[in-house]
Amino acid sequence: MDGIEEIWFCDLPCSSGAFESIEWRRTDDVLYGALELDEDEFVDSVSGSPLQAASREAYSRIFRLLDEQCLPNLWRAWNYLADINRETDGLERYRQFNIGRQDAFHDFRHGSSGNVPAACALGLSGGPLRIAFMAGMVETMAIENPRQVSAYDYPVQYGPRSPTFSRAALVRLPEQEILFLSGTASILGHRTVHPGDIANQTRESLANVNAVITEANMLSRSGEYTLDELTYRVYLRHVDHLATVRDVLATTLGADTSITYVQADICRADLLVEIEGIASHAVENSHR
Questions:
Q1: Band (1; pLDDT cuts 50, 70, 90)
Q2: Distance separating alpha carbons of residues 22 and 123, to the nearest angstrom
Q3: Residue 8 falls inside a structural domain
Q4: Could you tell me which residues come within 8 angstroms of residue 132 by beta carbon, excluding any fewer than 6 positions away?
Q5: What would the pLDDT profile of 5-62 be if each residue is shown by its tens digit?
Q6: Contact call for residues 73 and 65 (beta carbons, < 8 A)
Q7: d(CA 218, CA 16)
Q8: Residues 230-266: tens digit of each pLDDT
Q9: What's the pTM value of the predicted model, to 2 decimals?
Q10: What is the C-alpha to C-alpha distance for residues 102 and 204, in angstroms, rounded to an integer?
């Protein structure tokens, strides 16, 4: 198999279009979009590094599209950038990305803490900045993890700007509820734990996933979410860790849970694995 295609299905009529290099498709109240920006187009930027400028422009385009489509709420973003842990222009590239992303949030008067979208940021070996996203009419309910400092409150040791994302987002549609689990790793408080230990990093990541799902269940109106019902994507820094991670996940999640494994760099150089997920419930005669 040469690659993996991600397809989102909808049984409602859809429209589609292109906007400032964003390809998008939508129903009445839900939109999915994707864009790519080449950093080389921003080498002459006067406001930071090329990646910082590209990140700011990418999110600016997303917000302009959402304004045009009258769908004001960004629910979930998937961010992929080359060499995420490499230092250029005096700063790690992930930290450059965080500055540009947060600038766009501020430019469009979106808060950079509190009720912010779920997200992940992963490193590729090369290529443009790539962002996919989902947005809609209704506002999300941001969910945090009591075991962790919220990412937007990280201390300055992790960069001049904190990451702009929530640990998860719960979307309440009239007949459906969607849980978006952000990229989740082996972090307690704000510190990486179990450096160099892939098995225990996987277990710690799962403990954080479980903590976030527990918080989501306090808000759910569609019944409790369970660990084994989510559809997961697991990012591995090193391919030779795959067997170990599979064994750890199978012990907790069971053999039938839907998991896709992807090789990618994680947003901190000392993190070896990251887990994200999604689940959807029908809402039927619920009074919660």
A1: very low
A2: 21
A3: no
A4: 6, 32, 33, 34, 77, 78
A5: 677 788 889 999 999 999 999 999 999 999 999 999 999 988 799 999 999 999 999 9
A6: no
A7: 36
A8: 999 999 999 999 999 999 999 999 999 999 999 999 9
A9: 0.95
A10: 28
Given the residues 139, 274, 276, 284, the one annotated as active site: 274
Q: Which residues of 202-231 are buried (b: 16+ CB within 10 A; e: fewer)?
A: bbbbbbbbbbbbebbeeebebeebebebbe
Rounded Cα–Cα distance for residues 228 and 253 (Å): 5
Read off the DSSP letter of residue 255. Answer: T
Give the CATH number of the domain where residue 236 resides: 3.30.1330.40
Domain for residue 9, yes or no?
no
Please answer whether residues 121 and 99 qualify as being in contact, where contact means their C-beta atoms are separated by less than 8 angstroms. Answer: no
Whether residue 288 lies inside any domain: the answer is: no
The DSSP annotation for 122-178 comes to EEESSS-EEEEEEEESSPPEEE--TTB--GGG--GGG-SS----BSEEEEE-SSEEE
Structure tokens at 242: 């795959």
| Domain assignment present for 3 | no
Report which DSSP code applies to 265.
B
Residue 204 annotated as catalytic = no
For residue 120, give its domain range.
15-282
